[in-house]
Amino acid sequence: MCFEESCLRYDERVAYALRTLYAGFGYSRFKMGKFEEYELYVQNKDFLSGERMITFTDGDGTLLALKPDVTISILKNTQEGDKGLRKVYYHENVYRTGRGEAHFREIMQTGLECIGPLDDYQVFEVITLALQSLSLISEEYMLDLSHMGLISGLMEQAGVAASDYETVLAAVREKNPTALSEFCRDSGLPEEGCRLLRVLVDTYGSMEPVLDRLEPLCTATQSRAAIHELRVMERLLTAAGLSARVQLDFSVVNDMGYYNGIVFQGFINGLCDRVLSGGRYDRLAEKMGKRLGAIGFALSLNELERLSSPSQEYDVDVLLLYDEETKLAELSETVLRLRAEGKKLLVQCDRPERLYPREVMDLRGLGERSK
């Protein structure tokens, strides 16, 4: 069995590096079974990024689901009242459809969750780990950051009714100023309120200048608290030399029924869709009857298949050929020697088509076959 990095596929190397990163920050491995009770997920179906689940009936009549999500299972298995934070990471396959998709997909996810009495440092640490995760995939990456508290605070200041929040969020998510203007006209919002909402669509970029522009506009308690938290994050990221990799973009919007603070998405140059998404989801914990702070993120490793793996000039270092006359003791000795030298090799009787070895070593016809 090969344990060398060169023997792993690109996505496997990334997954290994991610697990090493998280373990280095004290996160322990969470391993879940393939099945959970369907009721656990159906109660929080809106939290899932897919709409449908694969279900079946167990022998005792319990309806089970083939795991569509890991975060919900981690929260289920987290006890309220434990001292300290629970920090876990996972590497799991989940099974679900995407929104609007007809077919189920097997999605390979690696991620982490930090659950418990969160403070500014813990939020910063998770954001930092998200950035380091992206850097392990590519040198060209960016994290888009938003804050649900700031968005809801500005909607409150603008006079948007709570029943209309989803309409406004949809326009902000799509960066659609036309839809936002139509909403303002139809709902009869004053011009001052409309200007506040347009800020959510028009304002994005590096953290410090965006916050400088937004701070005078944030007068509600909720939006001011969000600005303060984002200021703390900006100072910490700058001190860590990471601020150039982060921009504020309020089109990053998650479900307000579950998310209540900082949310973010990670992008890699060369991929159209995000590869990382996460945020603070205290409200999911609350819906599950637990008063806990919670923040985390997940990476979809399936997306990495679209990236070009580092090109390899050769498939193997040595193609080792043998036949029925080759002495098996000599063949075995040669294999052990080449592996001890760190060579990647393939042992075959005939040369495969479309294989590009660096070297061919031919042991055919070298004597009687050993018994």
Describe this structure in words.
Residues 367-371 have low confidence and may be disordered. The relative contact order is 0.13. With 371 residues, this protein is α/β, with parallel strands linked by helices. The protein is elongated and about 90 Å long. The chain has helices at 10-24, 38-42, 71-76, 120-137, 148-158, 165-173, 177-187, 191-202, 207-214, 221-239, 282-287, 328-340; strands at residues 28-29, 35-37, 55-57, 63-66, 86-96, 105-116, 141-147, 204-206, 246-249, 262-268, 276-280, 293-300, 316-321, 345-348, 357-362. It starts with 9 loop residues before the first helix and ends in a 9-residue tail after the last strand. A hairpin with an 8-residue loop joins strand 5 and strand 6 (105-116). It has 3 domains: 9-140 and 269-311, 2-Layer Sandwich (BirA Bifunctional Protein, domain 2); 141-245, no CATH class; 316-362, no CATH class. A 9-stranded mixed sheet has the order 1-5-6-12-11-10-7-9-8. It contains 12 helices and 15 strands. Helix content is 36%, strand content 23%. The longest helix is centred in the middle third of the chain and has 19 residues, at 221-239.
Describe this structure in a few short sentences.
The protein has helices spanning 10-24, 38-42, 71-76, 120-137, 148-158, 165-173, 177-187, 191-202, 207-214, 221-239, 282-287, 328-340; strands at residues 28-29, 35-37, 55-57, 63-66, 86-96, 105-116, 141-147, 204-206, 246-249, 262-268, 276-280, 293-300, 316-321, 345-348, 357-362.
